[in-house]
Amino acid sequence: MCTPTPGLRRVMVLLAAALVSASVAAGEGWREEGVQYGQVGADVVLSCASAPGRSGVEWRRDGAATLPEGCVLRDGDLLLPRAELAAGGAYSCHDGTGQLLRSISLRLGYLPGIPSVTCRASDYENFSCSWTPSVETFLPTRYITTYR
């Protein structure tokens, strides 16, 4: 097998570096109404911002009053310390009469890792590259790449 030309080798290294540096978790660039993203293992705060006075707020998960173990209600906000993947779901906050104030779909996942990059070249101008994520993020993830 022939070794790639020095110019092609530089292109492949630049492409791999661009893939590694341009991994973007969805929470940073894509916003969906009513969806909140969080990192597994980190503290996650769900805010009931529309609660007047923010006292007397009741939180529910998937329609039931049962919340993940260890969660804390603080000034109307719900704190999920060291959130686990299973803590994701549909959360809602209600006032003292049970009226819905806010709904949040919580999606938890992991930060993207360094992808595995493979490139093939038929000559120094024609090449193709593909990559495979190294971590299942459980979140929408996009990779941006460039080459020169």
Question: Would you give an account of this structure?
Answer:
Helix content is 14%, strand content 36%. The protein is mainly β. The chain has 2 domains: 6-29 and 111-143, no CATH class; 41-109, Immunoglobulin-like (Sandwich). The strands form 4 sheets. Strands 2-8-7-4 form a 4-stranded mixed β-sheet, with no helix packed on it. Strand 9 and strand 10 form a beta hairpin. The longest helix is centred in the first third of the chain and has 16 residues, at 6-21.
Secondary structure blueprint with pairings:
Elements lengths: L5 H16 L1 E3 H4 L5 E5 L4 E3 L11 E4 L10 E3 L2 E4 L8 E6 L5 E10 L6 E6 L5 E6 L8 E3 L5
Parallel strand pairs: 2-8
Antiparallel strand pairs: 1-11, 3-6, 4-7, 5-6, 7-8, 9-10
Average pLDDT number: 78
Assembly level: single chain
Query: Which CATH architecture of the largest domain?
Result: Sandwich
Q: What would you give as the CATH superfamily of the largest domain?
A: Immunoglobulins
* Whole-number tally of structural domains: 2
Question: N-to-C SSE series?
Answer: HEHEEEEEEEEEE
Low-confidence stretches: 1-28
End-to-end gap: 25 Å
CATH class of the largest domain, named Mainly Beta
- Give the CA-based shape: elongated
- Protein structure class: mainly beta
Q: How would you write the strand order of the largest sheet?
A: 2-8-7-4
Strand residues, percent: 35-45%
The count of DSSP E runs of length 2 or more, i.e. the number of strands, is 11
Largest sheet: 4 strands, mixed
From the 3D structure, determine the CATH topology of the largest domain: Immunoglobulin-like
